[in-house]
C-alpha cells in the first residue's frame, strides 16, 4: 500500500506558482527571428499559401511542425508529392506559378514581416459622384417629390387647404417626370409604385378637402383601377364618403359595400366602421329596417356607443317600444374601457408616488378618458330623453323606467340628472307644481345635485315674481356649490330685482370668475352698469358679449311670426342699404298680416330701392289689384309707368286724380264734423301716404307707417334719392326698456330644442 505513496523531500519548498513558466517550445515566438526554417518559409511563397486541405481525407498524411528546436522534416502534400519550395535530399524543389501570379522573389527580399499590410499606406480616395448622371438626377427628383408630399400634408394639418392642394399638384407633375426618366434608364418594372401611390392618394385627399369632389373621384378611380397597387380597393370607402357628402346615398352605399367585400375578415375594426357608415346612410335615406340590420350586427360583434345610439334612433323612427328598451339596455352595457377614478388617488404618503399620480391626473390619456366618458353620458342622456315619452303610457313612467335601468348600470350618477330632466319636461308641459315637487326631492341629496335642483327652483320662483323664495333657493344653491355660475347668476337676479345693483354686480362678477363663458352673467352685468349709469363699462360688456356670440341666432329664427322683430330687422337692413335682405322679412310680414297693405308696399319699396324697377312695377300692380283705393300705390304706378314709357300711365293717372278728389272730400267732411262736435282741430301727420286724415283718436297701432311714408320720395324726386332718409319701417331700440329685466341663466336653454346637448343641473330650466 505504501509503495504508491511518494513523500516530497524536506529540502524542497512549496512553490504555489511553479510550472507556470514551463511551455512547449513549439509555441515560443521570441526566437522565431533566429529560426532558419521559419525565415526560409517566410521568404518563399510557402508562408503565403493557404493551408492545403485533403481532397481524399482517408489518404491525408500528417505533417510535423518544424521549429528552431527540432529537426527539419520534409513537407509532403496530400497527394504524396513534395510541397513546392520544400527541401528534399538537400535539393530545393523549384517554385511554380509564381511569375504568372504577379509575384517575384526580388519583391520579397529584404521586406519586413507585415502580415496586416500596414506599410501599404492609406486607401485611395473614393471616386467623386457625378451629378450629371441619370441615376443621380432620378434620386434627386425622387427626393423632391417626397418633400412636396410632406409639405402638402403639413399645410393641410395647419388648415391651409389651398397651399396643400398646390403642393400636391406639384408633386404629381414632378412624379410623372420622374416616371418618364426612370423608364428611359431602367426597365418599367423598376418604377417606384409606392411613391406613385402616395402622390395620387395625397392629391385625391387634397381635392376632397377643398370640396373638389369630381377631381377627387377621378383621382381615386385612377388608383383603384390600377391592378399594380395592392389593397387599393379599400379606397372605395373614401369614394363612398364623397358620395355621402354629395347626398348621392345610393352610390355611397354601393361603394361602401364594394369596399367591405374587398377587406378581409381579419381587419375586424375597419369592417365595423364601414358597416356603421352603411347604417348611417340607410338612416339618411329613410331605410330604417336596413339600418337596423347593420347596427344590430355591429352591436353583436363589437358594440360601441355610436352604433348603440343610432340603433335606438332607428327603432324610435319605426315606433318599436320594446326594441327601444332593449337597445337602451345594450347602450348602457357598452364597456367604456377606461380606468376608475380610484387609480388617481394616492394610496400612501410616498412623495414619489404622489408626484407620479399628479403627473398623470391630467395627461393626454386622462383627458381622452374624460372625453369618452362625457360622450357616453351625452348619448345615454339624449337617448333617455328621446324614448322616455314614448316607451310607456306617460312620459313620467318612461322616465322612471330609464332611471331604474341607469341606476343598475355603471352610470349611477346619471340617475339624478334624469330626474332633473324629468322636472324640465314638466315645465315644458306647463305643469309647474309637478316640476317643483320633483325638484324639491333633491334638497337632501349630495351637494352637486342639491345645487342644481335649488338653482332651478330659484329660477321658477323668479319667473313667478316670488323673489323671497327665489332668493332663498338661490342661497341654498350657492351654499351647496359656491362655484356654480348659474346659482350665482340667479342670486344676482334676485338682488337686481330688489334694486341693489352694486351687490348684484358683485354676484355677476363672481359668476364670471368661476366661468368666463357664462354669457348670461356678462349680459346681466351690462344691464347693471347701465342702471348705475356707468355707460362705458356697460358698453364694454355688451361688446364682449357680441364678440363671444357673434354668430348667435337672432330671435327671428325661433319666433319668426313676431311682427315687431320682423319690422325691426327689415328696417335695419334698409337703414344699412341692404334692401335685398329686407325683402324676405317684409314678405313674411305680409303673409302674417295679409290685410295690412304697408308690408306689401315695403316689399315694392325695397325692389325699387335696389334698382329692380320691373319687379317693383309688378309688385305695385299686384297691390293695386288687392287694394284699388290705395293712393300711395297709384302714385308710384304713375311714376314708374311714366319713366318706363308704358301706355298704362294715363289709366293710373285718372284713377289717382279720382281718389285724391274723393280723399279731399272725405277730409272736408271730417273737419266739419270736428268743428260741429267741438273737438280740437287735429294736425295732419305730414306723411304723403296716409290714406285718411288724423282724428281725435290718432296714434293707433294701424298708423305706425308714418316713418315709412316719410321715407318714400315725393312725386318730383328721383328713385335713387335715398340720402339721409329714415328707414321704411319704425323700429324700437333693442337696448330699450323692454329688455331691462335681467337675463336668467336659462335664457339660452329656453331657445334650444328638447334634445340639445346640455349640461343638466348646472344652469336654469328651459321653457
The SS-based structural class is mainly alpha
Strand arrangement within the widest β-sheet reads 1-2
Instruction: Please tell me what the overall shape is.
Output: extended
Based on CA atoms alone, the radius of gyration comes out at: 49 Å
Count of beta strands? 2
Quickly count the helices.
32
Strand content: under 5%
Helix fraction? Answer: 55-70%
Largest sheet: 2 strands, antiparallel
Protein name: Intraflagellar transport 88
Organism: Ovis aries (Sheep)
Task: Put the structure in a nutshell.
The chain has 767 residues and is mainly α. Helix content is 58%, strand content 1%.
Describe what you observe in this structure.
The chain has 767 residues and is mostly helical. The chain has helices at 36-43, 105-108, 134-157, 161-185, 193-209, 213-225, 236-245, 249-262, 268-285, 288-301, 305-318, 321-332, 351-360, 364-391, 395-407, 414-428, 432-440, 447-463, 467-480, 485-497, 501-514, 519-531, 535-548, 555-558, 563-575, 579-592, 597-609, 613-626, 631-644, 649-677, 706-711, 747-750; strands at 87-88, 91-92. Strand 1 and strand 2 (91-92) form a beta hairpin. The longest helix is centred in the C-terminal third of the chain and has 29 residues, at 649-677. It starts with 35 loop residues before the first helix and ends in a 17-residue tail after the last helix. This is Intraflagellar transport 88.
